[in-house]
Amino acid sequence: xxxxxxxxxxxxxxxxxxxxxxxxxxxxxxxxxxxxxxxxxxxxxxxxxxxxxxxxxxxxxxxxxxxxxxxxxxxxxxxxxxxxxxxxxxxxxxxxxxxxxxxxxxxxxxxxxxxxxxxxxxxxxxxxxxxxxxxxxxxxxxxxxxxxxxxxxxxxxxxxxxxxxxxxxxxxxxxxxxxxxx
Length: 182
Fold this sequence. Notes:
Layout: H1 4-26, H2 36-68, H3 73-87, H4 95-106, H5 121-141, H6 157-181
Helix pairs in contact: 1-2, 1-6, 2-3, 2-4, 2-5, 2-6, 5-6
């Protein structure tokens, strides 16, 4: 059974895909430079959906652990509140941050599960960190093309489709792993 976090992720990632569809609908020859923002926004939304998935999924797992545990109520409250405080500063879902929070609260290295067709665990880690960095550059530095100065686009349409696919596969792999361990 899929977690609520997984269901929410599937709903939220659609914003990223919708932005890409809007880009396609507005794209013509030559492409208007003002629509490039849709691709950059799509990447920001995709990583926000992933970040929220990780936050929600670990919260679900901790709540489940507390419900099935025979621990005292004060210990359960402390455990949940500690996670809540930690997630307030989680922000960018780098491999190190994701791995650390799941190990700390569940004793699981979810990055062990990050492999699927044509993607090894190491490739998945490198790609996640690359996307988080790219998202940070876009969100904080815009990377908006400067008129009259040719430069590669921060996010191409094909790259964005690949990014969305990658993020969906990462979430699926994480979900399957957590379902098998919890």
